[in-house]
Design brief:
This protein has a domain of 110 residues: Homeodomain-like (Arc Repressor Mutant, subunit A), CATH 1.10.10.60. It has 162 residues and is mainly α. The model has no long low-confidence stretch (mean pLDDT 86). It is flat, with a radius of gyration of 28 Å. Helix 1 runs parallel beside helix 4 and helix 3 packs across helix 4.
C-alpha cells in the first residue's frame, strides 16, 4: 500500500487524482472540498511544503489547467442562453447574467496571467522603427539629452548665425 498521510490518505492514489482534476481546470480548493476520499486542504498543504515533487507537479497541473480554463472562457463568452429571460415574444434583457459571464471570463484571464505570465501576461515591447531598444540605450539617450540641456543653459542660447 502507498504512503499514508496523518489522516490515513494514500498519497499514491490521492496526488495523481488531485493533479488530474487541477489540470482539468478545477481549483485545488474545490477539488479537495468536493471529494471525501481526498485529504483536507491543511493535509495537502503540509504535504506540499514537505515535498518538492508535489510542488512541481502541482505547478505543472495548474499550467495545464490554465489551458482548460481558456477553452472554457471561449464557451462562456459564446453562450448567450441566459442573456435574455421571458418568452420568445417578449424577451427581457438580463444584465446580471451578462455581467456574471463577463466576470467569469475576466477572472479566468487574470488567473492565466498569474499562472502563465509569459503566455497570457501583458506584453510590453519598446521599439523604434520596429527594432527593439534595450533599457541601457534608453537611459543613455535620456542622460545625453539632460546633459545637452544643461550645457545650453550654461552657455546661454547664443545663436552664431548672424
Amino acid at each position: 500500500m502507498g504512503d499514508r498521510g496523518p489522516e490515513g490518505f494514500d498519497k499514491e492514489y490521492c496526488l495523481p487524482e488531485i493533479y488530474a482534476r487541477v489540470a482539468s481546470g478545477k481549483s485545488l480548493d474545490k477539488v479537495l472540498r468536493e471529494d471525501s476520499n481526498l485529504p483536507s486542504a491543511s493535509t495537502f498543504w503540509r504535504w506540499h511544503m514537505e515535498d518538492e515533487d508535489i510542488r512541481d507537479n502541482l505547478a505543472r497541473a495548474r499550467l495545464n489547467g490554465v489551458e482548460a480554463l481558456m477553452d472554457e472562457s471561449v464557451s462562456i463568452a459564446d453562450d448567450s442562453g441566459s442573456d435574455y429571460t421571458g418568452t420568445d415574444d417578449e424577451p427581457v434583457y438580463n444584465p446580471e447574467s451578462v455581467q456574471r459571464s463577463k466576470l467569469r471570463v475576466e477572472t479566468r484571464f487574470k488567473y492565466a496571467q498569474m499562472i502563465a505570465p509569459r503566455k497570457y501576461g501583458l506584453k510590453v515591447d519598446v521599439t523604434t522603427d520596429g527594432e527593439k531598444v534595450s533599457l541601457g540605450e534608453v537611459e543613455s539617450l535620456t542622460r545625453l539629452a539632460a546633459i545637452a540641456s544643461k550645457l545650453q543653459e550654461r552657455l546661454g542660447d547664443t545663436d552664431d548665425t548672424e
